[in-house]
Amino acid sequence: MSTESQQLYSQLPAIDRLLRDPAVEPAVAKYGQTLISELLRQMQAQAREAIKARQQLPEWCHNWPQALLTRLNQQQRLALQPVFNLSGTVLHTNLGRALLAQPAIEAVVNAMGAAVTLEYDLEGAGRGHRDRAVADLLCQLTGAEDACIVNNNAAAVLLMLAAIAPGQQVVVSRGELVEIGGAFRIPDVMRQAGCQLVEVGTTNRTHLKDYRSAINEQTGLLMKVHTSNYSIQGFTAAVDETELAMLGREQGIPVATDLGSGSLIDMAQYGLPAEPMPQRLIAAGVDLVTFSGDKLLGGPQAGIIVGKKALIARLQQHPLKRALRVGKITLAALEATLRLYQQPELLAAQLPTLRLLTRPQQEMQASAERLLGQLVPYFAEQFELRAEACWSQIGSGSLPIDRLPSYALTFAPRDGRGSTLEHLAQRWRSLPQPVIGRVHDGKLWLDLRCLEQESALVEVLSA
Ligand SMILES: *Cc1c(COP(=O)(O)O)cnc(C)c1O
Hints:
By secondary structure, the protein is an alpha/beta fold.
Protein backbone atom coordinates (compact mmCIF):
# COMPACT_ATOMS: atom_id res chain seq x y z
CA MET A 1 0.00 0.00 0.00
CA SER A 2 1.32 3.42 -0.91
CA THR A 3 1.93 5.93 1.82
CA GLU A 4 -0.52 8.16 -0.02
CA SER A 5 -3.31 5.60 0.39
CA GLN A 6 -2.33 4.97 3.99
CA GLN A 7 -2.60 8.65 4.65
CA LEU A 8 -6.14 8.71 3.11
CA TYR A 9 -7.29 5.68 5.12
CA SER A 10 -6.17 7.40 8.28
CA GLN A 11 -8.45 10.32 7.46
CA LEU A 12 -11.60 8.16 7.68
CA PRO A 13 -13.43 9.11 10.88
CA ALA A 14 -14.29 6.40 13.43
CA ILE A 15 -17.99 5.45 13.57
CA ASP A 16 -18.03 5.86 17.37
CA ARG A 17 -16.84 9.43 17.04
CA LEU A 18 -19.36 10.25 14.31
CA LEU A 19 -22.22 8.88 16.44
CA ARG A 20 -21.27 11.43 19.12
CA ASP A 21 -20.96 14.32 16.64
CA PRO A 22 -23.46 17.07 17.63
CA ALA A 23 -24.65 17.20 13.98
CA VAL A 24 -25.38 13.45 14.01
CA GLU A 25 -26.79 13.04 17.52
CA PRO A 26 -30.34 14.25 16.67
CA ALA A 27 -30.52 11.64 13.88
CA VAL A 28 -29.39 8.93 16.33
CA ALA A 29 -32.09 10.03 18.78
CA LYS A 30 -34.73 9.89 16.06
CA TYR A 31 -33.77 6.76 14.11
CA GLY A 32 -31.73 4.77 16.64
CA GLN A 33 -28.09 3.76 16.71
CA THR A 34 -28.51 0.56 14.67
CA LEU A 35 -29.76 2.29 11.52
CA ILE A 36 -27.29 5.18 11.70
CA SER A 37 -24.27 2.94 12.40
CA GLU A 38 -25.23 0.76 9.43
CA LEU A 39 -25.40 3.80 7.14
CA LEU A 40 -22.03 5.04 8.41
CA ARG A 41 -20.52 1.60 7.82
CA GLN A 42 -21.79 1.67 4.24
CA MET A 43 -20.28 5.14 3.76
CA GLN A 44 -16.95 3.98 5.11
CA ALA A 45 -16.95 0.98 2.80
CA GLN A 46 -17.62 3.29 -0.13
CA ALA A 47 -14.83 5.64 0.89
CA ARG A 48 -12.43 2.69 1.18
CA GLU A 49 -13.42 1.50 -2.29
CA ALA A 50 -12.69 4.96 -3.68
CA ILE A 51 -9.25 5.04 -2.06
CA LYS A 52 -8.46 1.58 -3.38
CA ALA A 53 -9.64 2.33 -6.92
CA ARG A 54 -8.55 5.94 -7.36
CA GLN A 55 -6.29 6.88 -4.41
CA GLN A 56 -8.85 9.57 -3.68
CA LEU A 57 -11.57 10.32 -1.13
CA PRO A 58 -15.07 10.90 -2.53
CA GLU A 59 -16.24 14.53 -2.59
CA TRP A 60 -18.78 14.00 0.21
CA CYS A 61 -16.04 13.04 2.69
CA HIS A 62 -15.36 16.68 3.48
CA ASN A 63 -18.59 16.69 5.52
CA TRP A 64 -19.61 13.30 6.90
CA PRO A 65 -22.59 14.46 9.00
CA GLN A 66 -24.02 16.32 6.01
CA ALA A 67 -23.53 13.32 3.70
CA LEU A 68 -25.12 11.05 6.29
CA LEU A 69 -28.22 13.26 6.59
CA THR A 70 -28.62 13.40 2.80
CA ARG A 71 -28.50 9.60 2.59
CA LEU A 72 -30.85 9.27 5.50
CA ASN A 73 -33.37 11.53 3.78
CA GLN A 74 -33.20 9.53 0.58
CA GLN A 75 -33.47 6.26 2.46
CA GLN A 76 -36.48 7.37 4.51
CA ARG A 77 -38.50 8.51 1.48
CA LEU A 78 -41.43 6.15 1.08
CA ALA A 79 -41.73 4.27 -2.19
CA LEU A 80 -45.34 5.48 -2.51
CA GLN A 81 -44.70 9.19 -2.91
CA PRO A 82 -47.47 11.73 -3.42
CA VAL A 83 -47.05 13.47 -6.79
CA PHE A 84 -48.80 16.20 -8.73
CA ASN A 85 -50.72 14.32 -11.43
CA LEU A 86 -50.63 16.87 -14.26
CA SER A 87 -50.38 14.12 -16.87
CA GLY A 88 -53.87 14.87 -18.16
CA THR A 89 -55.15 11.41 -17.23
CA VAL A 90 -57.58 11.54 -14.32
CA LEU A 91 -57.75 7.81 -13.53
CA HIS A 92 -54.07 7.06 -14.14
CA THR A 93 -53.34 3.40 -13.40
CA ASN A 94 -49.62 4.04 -12.83
CA LEU A 95 -50.46 6.87 -10.41
CA GLY A 96 -52.95 4.85 -8.38
CA ARG A 97 -56.25 5.69 -10.15
CA ALA A 98 -59.04 7.27 -8.06
CA LEU A 99 -58.39 9.71 -5.22
CA LEU A 100 -60.62 8.75 -2.32
CA ALA A 101 -63.37 11.01 -1.02
CA GLN A 102 -62.88 12.52 2.44
CA PRO A 103 -65.46 10.25 4.15
CA ALA A 104 -63.70 7.22 2.65
CA ILE A 105 -60.33 8.45 3.91
CA GLU A 106 -61.78 8.90 7.41
CA ALA A 107 -63.39 5.46 7.33
CA VAL A 108 -60.04 3.91 6.37
CA VAL A 109 -58.17 5.73 9.12
CA ASN A 110 -60.70 4.55 11.70
CA ALA A 111 -60.66 0.97 10.45
CA MET A 112 -56.88 0.80 10.43
CA GLY A 113 -56.38 1.66 14.07
CA ALA A 114 -59.19 -0.33 15.62
CA ALA A 115 -60.74 -3.76 15.81
CA VAL A 116 -63.83 -3.72 13.58
CA THR A 117 -66.92 -5.83 12.97
CA LEU A 118 -65.44 -7.32 9.80
CA GLU A 119 -66.96 -10.78 10.17
CA TYR A 120 -68.68 -10.27 13.48
CA ASP A 121 -72.40 -9.88 13.88
CA LEU A 122 -73.07 -7.68 16.94
CA GLU A 123 -76.63 -8.92 17.28
CA GLY A 124 -75.98 -12.64 17.16
CA ALA A 125 -72.34 -12.40 18.28
CA GLY A 126 -71.75 -14.99 15.57
CA ARG A 127 -69.66 -14.99 12.45
CA GLY A 128 -70.97 -12.70 9.72
CA HIS A 129 -69.85 -12.54 6.11
CA ARG A 130 -67.31 -9.82 5.35
CA ASP A 131 -68.93 -8.45 2.18
CA ARG A 132 -72.37 -8.16 3.82
CA ALA A 133 -72.62 -4.41 4.52
CA VAL A 134 -71.12 -3.41 1.18
CA ALA A 135 -73.23 -6.00 -0.64
CA ASP A 136 -76.41 -4.57 0.91
CA LEU A 137 -75.45 -1.10 -0.31
CA LEU A 138 -74.68 -2.42 -3.78
CA CYS A 139 -78.05 -4.17 -3.91
CA GLN A 140 -79.82 -0.90 -3.07
CA LEU A 141 -77.82 1.02 -5.67
CA THR A 142 -77.98 -1.50 -8.51
CA GLY A 143 -81.17 -3.47 -7.90
CA ALA A 144 -79.11 -6.68 -7.80
CA GLU A 145 -79.98 -9.53 -5.41
CA ASP A 146 -76.50 -9.89 -3.96
CA ALA A 147 -72.85 -8.90 -4.40
CA CYS A 148 -69.31 -10.16 -3.88
CA ILE A 149 -66.14 -8.09 -3.42
CA VAL A 150 -62.62 -9.11 -4.45
CA ASN A 151 -59.23 -7.46 -4.92
CA ASN A 152 -59.79 -5.95 -8.38
CA ASN A 153 -61.94 -6.41 -11.44
CA ALA A 154 -59.47 -8.82 -13.05
CA ALA A 155 -59.96 -11.01 -9.96
CA ALA A 156 -63.73 -10.57 -10.25
CA VAL A 157 -63.71 -11.93 -13.80
CA LEU A 158 -61.40 -14.81 -12.86
CA LEU A 159 -63.53 -15.82 -9.87
CA MET A 160 -66.75 -15.53 -11.84
CA LEU A 161 -65.48 -17.77 -14.63
CA ALA A 162 -63.94 -20.33 -12.26
CA ALA A 163 -67.04 -20.57 -10.10
CA ILE A 164 -69.77 -20.42 -12.75
CA ALA A 165 -68.36 -22.31 -15.73
CA PRO A 166 -65.54 -24.63 -14.51
CA GLY A 167 -64.45 -26.96 -17.30
CA GLN A 168 -67.24 -25.60 -19.48
CA GLN A 169 -67.49 -23.45 -22.58
CA VAL A 170 -67.88 -19.68 -22.37
CA VAL A 171 -69.24 -17.91 -25.43
CA VAL A 172 -67.79 -14.45 -26.25
CA SER A 173 -68.03 -12.25 -29.37
CA ARG A 174 -64.82 -11.89 -31.43
CA GLY A 175 -65.32 -8.13 -31.16
CA GLU A 176 -64.94 -8.28 -27.38
CA LEU A 177 -61.74 -10.30 -26.81
CA VAL A 178 -60.23 -7.41 -24.92
CA GLU A 179 -56.71 -6.86 -23.64
CA ILE A 180 -56.52 -4.44 -20.71
CA GLY A 181 -53.03 -3.10 -19.90
CA GLY A 182 -50.92 -5.23 -17.61
CA ALA A 183 -51.49 -8.64 -19.22
CA PHE A 184 -55.20 -8.99 -18.60
CA ARG A 185 -56.46 -10.68 -21.77
CA ILE A 186 -59.85 -12.31 -21.91
CA PRO A 187 -58.61 -15.52 -23.64
CA ASP A 188 -55.81 -15.93 -21.05
CA VAL A 189 -58.14 -15.34 -18.11
CA MET A 190 -60.50 -17.98 -19.52
CA ARG A 191 -57.66 -20.51 -19.63
CA GLN A 192 -56.55 -19.65 -16.10
CA ALA A 193 -60.11 -20.10 -14.84
CA GLY A 194 -60.27 -23.54 -16.46
CA CYS A 195 -62.88 -22.50 -19.04
CA GLN A 196 -62.91 -23.08 -22.76
CA LEU A 197 -63.37 -19.91 -24.78
CA VAL A 198 -65.77 -20.18 -27.71
CA GLU A 199 -65.45 -17.20 -30.04
CA VAL A 200 -68.48 -16.23 -32.08
CA GLY A 201 -69.23 -13.64 -34.78
CA THR A 202 -66.54 -11.51 -36.40
CA THR A 203 -64.43 -8.59 -35.20
CA ASN A 204 -66.96 -6.01 -36.39
CA ARG A 205 -70.29 -7.87 -36.40
CA THR A 206 -71.83 -10.41 -34.04
CA HIS A 207 -75.52 -11.41 -34.09
CA LEU A 208 -77.82 -13.21 -31.67
CA LYS A 209 -77.89 -16.24 -33.99
CA ASP A 210 -74.09 -16.54 -33.57
CA TYR A 211 -74.51 -17.01 -29.82
CA ARG A 212 -77.49 -19.30 -30.31
CA SER A 213 -75.70 -21.65 -32.69
CA ALA A 214 -72.67 -21.91 -30.37
CA ILE A 215 -74.78 -23.25 -27.48
CA ASN A 216 -74.52 -26.96 -26.62
CA GLU A 217 -74.51 -29.18 -23.51
CA GLN A 218 -71.04 -27.93 -22.57
CA THR A 219 -71.94 -24.25 -22.57
CA GLY A 220 -71.61 -22.80 -19.06
CA LEU A 221 -71.85 -19.05 -19.64
CA LEU A 222 -72.66 -16.40 -22.23
CA MET A 223 -70.41 -13.44 -21.64
CA LYS A 224 -70.12 -9.87 -22.86
CA VAL A 225 -67.02 -7.72 -22.29
CA HIS A 226 -67.29 -3.96 -22.41
CA THR A 227 -64.74 -2.65 -24.90
CA SER A 228 -63.61 0.14 -22.63
CA ASN A 229 -60.28 0.88 -24.31
CA TYR A 230 -61.11 0.79 -28.01
CA SER A 231 -64.10 1.26 -30.25
CA ILE A 232 -65.12 -0.50 -33.42
CA GLN A 233 -66.70 1.89 -35.88
CA GLY A 234 -68.31 1.65 -39.31
CA PHE A 235 -70.20 -1.49 -40.41
CA THR A 236 -70.79 -2.97 -36.97
CA ALA A 237 -73.34 -5.00 -35.05
CA ALA A 238 -73.36 -6.26 -31.48
CA VAL A 239 -75.98 -8.04 -29.42
CA ASP A 240 -77.28 -5.98 -26.55
CA GLU A 241 -77.63 -7.37 -23.04
CA THR A 242 -81.43 -7.51 -23.07
CA GLU A 243 -81.45 -9.86 -26.06
CA LEU A 244 -78.60 -11.98 -24.73
CA ALA A 245 -80.28 -12.26 -21.32
CA MET A 246 -83.46 -13.48 -23.02
CA LEU A 247 -81.51 -16.10 -24.92
CA GLY A 248 -79.77 -17.18 -21.70
CA ARG A 249 -83.08 -17.55 -19.86
CA GLU A 250 -84.60 -19.50 -22.72
CA GLN A 251 -81.62 -21.90 -22.78
CA GLY A 252 -81.06 -22.03 -19.01
CA ILE A 253 -77.53 -20.59 -19.30
CA PRO A 254 -76.27 -17.71 -17.12
CA VAL A 255 -75.32 -14.43 -18.82
CA ALA A 256 -72.54 -12.18 -17.51
CA THR A 257 -71.02 -8.83 -18.46
CA ASP A 258 -67.55 -7.57 -17.59
CA LEU A 259 -68.16 -3.83 -17.53
CA GLY A 260 -64.62 -2.86 -16.54
CA SER A 261 -65.47 0.60 -15.41
CA GLY A 262 -69.20 0.93 -15.00
CA SER A 263 -70.54 4.01 -13.32
CA LEU A 264 -73.41 3.94 -10.85
CA ILE A 265 -74.67 7.28 -12.13
CA ASP A 266 -75.53 8.50 -15.62
CA MET A 267 -72.35 10.25 -16.79
CA ALA A 268 -74.21 11.96 -19.65
CA GLN A 269 -76.10 14.17 -17.16
CA TYR A 270 -72.72 15.78 -16.38
CA GLY A 271 -71.85 16.20 -20.05
CA LEU A 272 -69.43 13.25 -19.86
CA PRO A 273 -69.29 10.36 -22.34
CA ALA A 274 -72.06 7.88 -21.50
CA GLU A 275 -70.90 4.67 -19.81
CA PRO A 276 -73.03 1.56 -19.33
CA MET A 277 -74.39 1.33 -15.79
CA PRO A 278 -74.52 -1.95 -13.79
CA GLN A 279 -78.11 -1.23 -12.67
CA ARG A 280 -79.27 -1.01 -16.32
CA LEU A 281 -77.72 -4.39 -17.07
CA ILE A 282 -79.26 -5.95 -13.96
CA ALA A 283 -82.63 -4.53 -15.06
CA ALA A 284 -82.02 -5.96 -18.54
CA GLY A 285 -81.81 -9.41 -16.94
CA VAL A 286 -78.05 -10.01 -16.93
CA ASP A 287 -77.23 -12.53 -14.19
CA LEU A 288 -73.78 -11.24 -13.14
CA VAL A 289 -72.03 -7.91 -13.75
CA THR A 290 -68.40 -7.20 -12.81
CA PHE A 291 -66.72 -3.79 -12.49
CA SER A 292 -63.81 -1.97 -10.81
CA GLY A 293 -63.98 -0.04 -7.55
CA ASP A 294 -61.32 2.48 -8.59
CA LYS A 295 -62.33 3.48 -12.08
CA LEU A 296 -65.43 5.66 -12.56
CA LEU A 297 -66.83 4.55 -9.19
CA GLY A 298 -64.07 6.64 -7.58
CA GLY A 299 -63.32 4.28 -4.70
CA PRO A 300 -60.50 1.96 -3.60
CA GLN A 301 -58.98 -0.74 -5.79
CA ALA A 302 -61.55 -3.52 -5.72
CA GLY A 303 -63.50 -5.84 -7.98
CA ILE A 304 -67.28 -5.84 -7.60
CA ILE A 305 -69.61 -8.57 -8.79
CA VAL A 306 -73.35 -7.96 -8.54
CA GLY A 307 -76.15 -10.27 -9.62
CA LYS A 308 -78.36 -13.25 -8.83
CA LYS A 309 -78.28 -14.60 -5.29
CA ALA A 310 -77.72 -18.25 -6.19
CA LEU A 311 -74.79 -17.40 -8.47
CA ILE A 312 -73.19 -14.98 -5.99
CA ALA A 313 -73.45 -17.74 -3.36
CA ARG A 314 -71.36 -19.96 -5.65
CA LEU A 315 -68.72 -17.23 -5.87
CA GLN A 316 -68.70 -16.71 -2.10
CA GLN A 317 -68.19 -20.44 -1.51
CA HIS A 318 -65.46 -20.95 -4.10
CA PRO A 319 -61.91 -21.49 -2.69
CA LEU A 320 -60.61 -18.71 -4.96
CA LYS A 321 -62.80 -16.21 -3.10
CA ARG A 322 -60.71 -16.79 0.01
CA ALA A 323 -57.56 -16.05 -2.00
CA LEU A 324 -58.98 -12.95 -3.69
CA ARG A 325 -60.97 -11.42 -0.84
CA VAL A 326 -60.32 -7.86 0.33
CA GLY A 327 -59.37 -6.63 3.79
CA LYS A 328 -61.03 -4.23 6.20
CA ILE A 329 -59.27 -1.19 4.71
CA THR A 330 -60.74 -1.76 1.26
CA LEU A 331 -64.18 -2.58 2.63
CA ALA A 332 -64.19 0.55 4.82
CA ALA A 333 -63.26 2.76 1.85
CA LEU A 334 -65.74 1.09 -0.46
CA GLU A 335 -68.62 1.33 2.01
CA ALA A 336 -68.02 5.05 2.60
CA THR A 337 -67.70 5.67 -1.15
CA LEU A 338 -70.93 3.83 -1.93
CA ARG A 339 -72.80 5.78 0.76
CA LEU A 340 -72.02 8.95 -1.19
CA TYR A 341 -74.05 7.52 -4.08
CA GLN A 342 -77.11 7.56 -1.82
CA GLN A 343 -76.90 11.38 -2.06
CA PRO A 344 -76.49 11.84 -5.82
CA GLU A 345 -77.03 15.62 -5.63
CA LEU A 346 -73.86 15.99 -3.58
CA LEU A 347 -71.77 13.52 -5.53
CA ALA A 348 -70.09 15.91 -7.97
CA ALA A 349 -68.79 17.97 -5.05
CA GLN A 350 -67.83 15.08 -2.75
CA LEU A 351 -66.36 12.45 -5.02
CA PRO A 352 -62.94 13.60 -6.31
CA THR A 353 -63.13 11.49 -9.49
CA LEU A 354 -66.41 13.08 -10.55
CA ARG A 355 -65.34 16.53 -9.36
CA LEU A 356 -62.19 16.39 -11.50
CA LEU A 357 -63.94 14.93 -14.52
CA THR A 358 -66.64 17.61 -14.45
CA ARG A 359 -64.38 20.66 -14.02
CA PRO A 360 -65.25 23.13 -16.76
CA GLN A 361 -62.48 24.12 -19.17
CA GLN A 362 -62.72 27.80 -18.13
CA GLU A 363 -61.65 26.83 -14.62
CA MET A 364 -58.43 25.24 -15.87
CA GLN A 365 -57.90 28.16 -18.25
CA ALA A 366 -58.13 30.70 -15.43
CA SER A 367 -55.77 28.53 -13.40
CA ALA A 368 -53.28 28.34 -16.30
CA GLU A 369 -53.31 32.12 -16.70
CA ARG A 370 -52.74 32.74 -12.99
CA LEU A 371 -49.89 30.21 -12.86
CA LEU A 372 -48.33 31.67 -15.99
CA GLY A 373 -47.90 35.02 -14.25
CA GLN A 374 -46.38 33.40 -11.18
CA LEU A 375 -44.03 30.96 -12.89
CA VAL A 376 -42.67 32.99 -15.84
CA PRO A 377 -40.01 34.71 -13.68
CA TYR A 378 -38.51 31.36 -12.72
CA PHE A 379 -38.40 29.75 -16.16
CA ALA A 380 -38.41 32.55 -18.78
CA GLU A 381 -34.69 32.38 -19.42
CA GLN A 382 -34.75 28.82 -20.75
CA PHE A 383 -38.40 28.27 -21.68
CA GLU A 384 -41.29 29.97 -23.37
CA LEU A 385 -44.36 29.51 -21.15
CA ARG A 386 -47.90 29.58 -22.50
CA ALA A 387 -51.44 28.77 -21.41
CA GLU A 388 -52.86 26.42 -24.04
CA ALA A 389 -56.01 24.40 -24.61
CA CYS A 390 -55.56 20.62 -24.45
CA TRP A 391 -57.49 17.38 -23.95
CA SER A 392 -57.57 15.35 -20.75
CA GLN A 393 -58.16 11.60 -20.73
CA ILE A 394 -60.56 9.93 -18.34
CA GLY A 395 -58.40 6.86 -17.83
CA SER A 396 -55.16 5.27 -18.91
CA GLY A 397 -55.26 1.82 -20.39
CA SER A 398 -58.89 1.35 -19.51
CA LEU A 399 -60.75 4.44 -20.78
CA PRO A 400 -58.32 6.18 -23.11
CA ILE A 401 -60.76 6.94 -25.90
CA ASP A 402 -62.85 9.48 -24.04
CA ARG A 403 -61.40 12.99 -24.04
CA LEU A 404 -62.38 16.13 -22.15
CA PRO A 405 -61.46 19.72 -23.07
CA SER A 406 -58.94 21.12 -20.62
CA TYR A 407 -56.18 23.70 -20.28
CA ALA A 408 -52.45 23.32 -19.75
CA LEU A 409 -49.41 25.35 -18.92
CA THR A 410 -46.79 24.54 -21.58
CA PHE A 411 -43.01 24.87 -21.46
CA ALA A 412 -41.21 25.12 -24.82
CA PRO A 413 -37.38 25.12 -24.63
CA ARG A 414 -35.92 28.26 -26.22
CA ASP A 415 -33.03 26.21 -27.61
CA GLY A 416 -35.59 23.90 -29.27
CA ARG A 417 -33.81 20.83 -27.92
CA GLY A 418 -35.55 17.70 -26.76
CA SER A 419 -32.79 17.10 -24.24
CA THR A 420 -33.56 20.42 -22.49
CA LEU A 421 -37.18 19.30 -22.20
CA GLU A 422 -36.24 15.86 -20.93
CA HIS A 423 -33.93 17.47 -18.39
CA LEU A 424 -36.76 19.67 -17.10
CA ALA A 425 -39.15 16.71 -16.87
CA GLN A 426 -36.50 14.74 -15.01
CA ARG A 427 -35.80 17.60 -12.58
CA TRP A 428 -39.49 17.81 -11.78
CA ARG A 429 -39.66 14.09 -11.14
CA SER A 430 -37.03 14.50 -8.42
CA LEU A 431 -38.79 17.33 -6.53
CA PRO A 432 -39.92 16.70 -2.92
CA GLN A 433 -43.42 16.29 -4.39
CA PRO A 434 -42.67 15.23 -7.97
CA VAL A 435 -44.53 16.98 -10.79
CA ILE A 436 -45.68 14.61 -13.53
CA GLY A 437 -46.44 16.27 -16.86
CA ARG A 438 -46.53 15.05 -20.44
CA VAL A 439 -43.99 15.65 -23.22
CA HIS A 440 -45.74 16.22 -26.53
CA ASP A 441 -45.09 18.25 -29.66
CA GLY A 442 -41.74 19.61 -28.43
CA LYS A 443 -43.19 20.97 -25.18
CA LEU A 444 -43.79 19.88 -21.62
CA TRP A 445 -47.51 20.07 -20.85
CA LEU A 446 -48.96 20.45 -17.36
CA ASP A 447 -52.68 19.67 -17.69
CA LEU A 448 -54.29 21.52 -14.78
CA ARG A 449 -57.48 19.46 -14.49
CA CYS A 450 -56.21 17.52 -11.45
CA LEU A 451 -54.55 20.50 -9.76
CA GLU A 452 -56.78 21.74 -6.97
CA GLN A 453 -54.09 23.56 -4.96
CA GLU A 454 -52.23 26.00 -7.18
CA SER A 455 -50.13 27.45 -4.38
CA ALA A 456 -48.64 24.04 -3.57
CA LEU A 457 -47.44 23.67 -7.17
CA VAL A 458 -45.97 27.19 -7.27
CA GLU A 459 -44.15 26.41 -4.05
CA VAL A 460 -42.37 23.31 -5.36
CA LEU A 461 -41.67 24.69 -8.85
CA SER A 462 -40.24 27.98 -7.59
CA ALA A 463 -38.02 26.41 -4.91
C1 LIG B 1 -60.20 -2.29 -16.30
C2 LIG B 1 -60.85 -3.50 -16.81
C3 LIG B 1 -60.59 -4.75 -16.26
C4 LIG B 1 -59.59 -4.92 -15.14
O1 LIG B 1 -60.02 -4.24 -13.99
P1 LIG B 1 -58.97 -3.96 -12.80
O2 LIG B 1 -59.80 -3.33 -11.74
O3 LIG B 1 -57.92 -3.07 -13.36
O4 LIG B 1 -58.42 -5.27 -12.39
C5 LIG B 1 -61.23 -5.84 -16.77
N1 LIG B 1 -62.10 -5.74 -17.79
C6 LIG B 1 -62.39 -4.54 -18.36
C7 LIG B 1 -63.38 -4.49 -19.49
C8 LIG B 1 -61.77 -3.38 -17.89
O5 LIG B 1 -62.04 -2.20 -18.46
